[in-house]
């Protein structure tokens, strides 16, 4: 089992069993240094891949919630924190065609 209790082998099984038969790819934009366009790159990449016709889900796990604000979203009731605490489904907001977002809040 990996960090945060995620089992990579389970993720691989889940992705290969999706109805569409397509494999889900996870892209993480990471850099230890702050202010290096991680959020900007994530937003731009997500929008462009969605415009190409791919189904894109953006997951904002940063308490700064910059990605969430980029799309003019907020989450007054902090559903992401609740879903992680109670192990319930993640909140999903529709942003545009092919593009959804799990919003973050400062309460994370
Ligand atoms: N190509 C660019 N040209 C000029 N400014 C940019 C460019 N990309 C991002 N910026 C600006 O740089 C700043 C930092 O970008 P961003 O918030 O994406 O970085 P970050 O790595 O996510 O930061 P943090 O570490 O705080 O999460 C923002 O003000 C953003 O508008
Ligand atoms: Mg950021």
Would you write up a description of this structure?
The protein has 108 residues and is of the alpha+beta class. The chain has a single domain, classed as 3-Layer(aba) Sandwich (Rossmann fold), CATH 3.40.50. It is 33% helix and 11% strand. The chain has four helices and three strands. The longest helix is centred in the middle third of the chain and has 14 residues, at 38-51. The protein binds adenosine-5'-triphosphate and magnesium ion. The site of adenosine-5'-triphosphate has 9 residues, from helix 2.
Please sum up the structure shown.
This protein is an alpha+beta fold and 108 residues long. It has helices at 8-16, 38-51, 66-70, 79-86; strands at 56-59, 93-96, 99-102.
Which descriptors apply to this entry?
single chain, 108 residues, alpha+beta, Rossmann fold, three-stranded mixed beta sheet, 3 strands, globular, disordered N terminus, binds adenosine-5'-triphosphate, binds magnesium ion
| Biggest sheet strand line-up | 1-3-2
- CATH architect. name: 3-Layer(aba) Sandwich
Ligand inventory reads: adenosine-5'-triphosphate, magnesium ion
Write down the overall geometry: globular
- Multimerization status: single chain
Summarize the biggest pleated sheet. 3 strands, mixed
Percent of residues in beta strands: 5-15%
Number of helices: 4
What's the layout of helices and strands?
Layout: H1 8-16, H2 38-51, E1 56-59, H3 66-70, H4 79-86, E2 93-96, E3 99-102
Parallel strand pairs: 1-3
Antiparallel strand pairs: 2-3
The chain binds adenosine-5'-triphosphate and magnesium ion.
